[in-house]
Design brief:
33% helix; 95 residues; 4 helices; five-stranded parallel β-sheet; globular; Hypothetical Protein Ychn, Chain: A; alpha/beta
C-alpha cells in the first residue's frame, strides 16, 4: 500500500497512520508532509520504526527550502517517481 502524507504530523491522525503502516508499505511525504523528513524529529523517528520505505517529493521539499535539512534515510523523488510509486503500490491511502 502507498500512504501519501500531505499534512504536518500534528495535523492529522498520525496514530492511525502508524497503526496502519506495515513494513511492506511505502510512505510518500508531499506538500506540508515533507516537514517530517527533516533529520532528528520525533515524527521521522516514529515513521522509521514502522519499517515502511520512506520517500519525499523533491519539488515540495525544495519549495519549502528544506533540501539541506532532509535526512539521508528519505529518498527524494520527482513527479515521475510519484507516478511510479502510485503504479507500483496499490491501493493508496491519503493522510
Amino acid at each position: 500500500m502507498l500512504h501519501t502524507v500531505s499534512h504536518s504530523f500534528y495535523q492529522f491522525d498520525s496514530a492511525a497512520l502508524l497503526n496502519t503502516v506495515t513494513p511492506n508499505d511505502v510512505i510518500l511525504l508531499l506538500q506540508d508532509g515533507v516537514t517530517m523528513a527533516m533529520a532528528q524529529n520525533e515524527a521521522l523517528i516514529q515513521l522509521k520504526q514502522s519499517g515502511a520505505m520512506l520517500y519525499a517529493l523533491r519539488e515540495d521539499v525544495a519549495a519549502r527550502g528544506l533540501l539541506s535539512l532532509i535526512t539521508s534515510d528519505i529518498e527524494l523523488v520527482d513527479f515521475q517517481g510519484f507516478v511510479d510509486l502510485t503504479a507500483a503500490h496499490y491501493p493508496q491511502m491519503t493522510w
